[in-house]
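For reproducibility, we list the full input for the 2-OXO-4-methylpentanoic acid complex.
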Amino acid sequence: MIDQVTIPVQQVAKSRITEVDFNNVQFGKSFADHMFVVNYANGQWQNPQIVPYGNLSLSPALSSLHYGQALFEGLKAYKNEAGEILVFRPDANAQRLNASAQRLCMPELPEELFLNGLFQLLSIDRDWIPTKPGYSLYIRPVMFATDDYIGVKPSDTYTFLIFTSPVGAYYSKPVRVKVETHYTRAAPGGMGFAKAAGNYAASLYPAQLALQQGYDQLLWTDGREHKYFEESGTMNVVFVINGKIITPSTSDSILKGITRDSILQLARDWDVKVEERPVSVEEVITALKNGTLEEAFGVGTAATIAPIAVIAHEGTEYTLPEVAARKLSNRLKHTLDDIKIGNAPDPHKWVFKV
Ligand code: COI
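The corresponding predicted structure, in tokenized form, follows.
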């Protein structure tokens, strides 16, 4: 349990909740009434508050706009049958936020402050947590540099915010992905492992080209040789070949996904063989050709478990087995969904009750 220091709250005059159709929410388009804000100056985080969700007033010289000292996180909250608020692995997000902060020369945020602010925000906006199966309240923590100074140096001041958004599925159907062998998302020694805003900026142009060719996402390959899989744009990637889970080992150019970690743990609990190691494009294409690739899917907070329907490589499209026949990913998805809403045992203590 965390130390519940009460954070001052400024309530909205009128909730916007009736403007949202909770049976049909699109990812990332509506935002709950309040947000948690804390600012960093003079070497410390100060004045945490919960205020109405709304626009910020920013200097044109805001250093994060110019030099990209900005990072974010993503996690989700649910309600159990008793109406209690459950959050999936928020401690892991707080820790990953700080790993990203360190790489971007930004100050770490105490984990208790992250959890305290988040839990009080969720209590206040509890009515925004969808209860429809497959829906959740997506939580978006974000930290950015706020010095109004255009010299290149780490900022002395920062803002950290958490706001939330009721969401449904990120991908509404199995995804078609293209193996990217020209552009690079992240290079060895770079910041690909961090949830840095700039990593997503680097991915947009190649992803847009792929979209124009009819693909939902890219499968990124390593920046050195384009021979080994890294991750997909919004998720880590997992293959099932000959009954074994095979996934790229995380590195300084691959995000350490919390959903990735959770599904690998579940698979190990079930005595499924898991290999975290370099996965070559050649190995996967060979398995596609000889029929030993049984399943492929992306894993991420927003995407949850997103089945891959088609993999395109150098102009050839390979169609994967139908989703209904994919025993392992379907079992992983259902088990994880049940743990998150409190309908299955939680042996790893992933779920925090607010
Ligand atoms: C998440 O899954 O939470 C992410 O951060 C992916 C996002 C870019 C939609």
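The chain has a mean pLDDT of 95. The first strand starts at residue 34 and ends at 41. Both points were considered when choosing residues for closer inspection.
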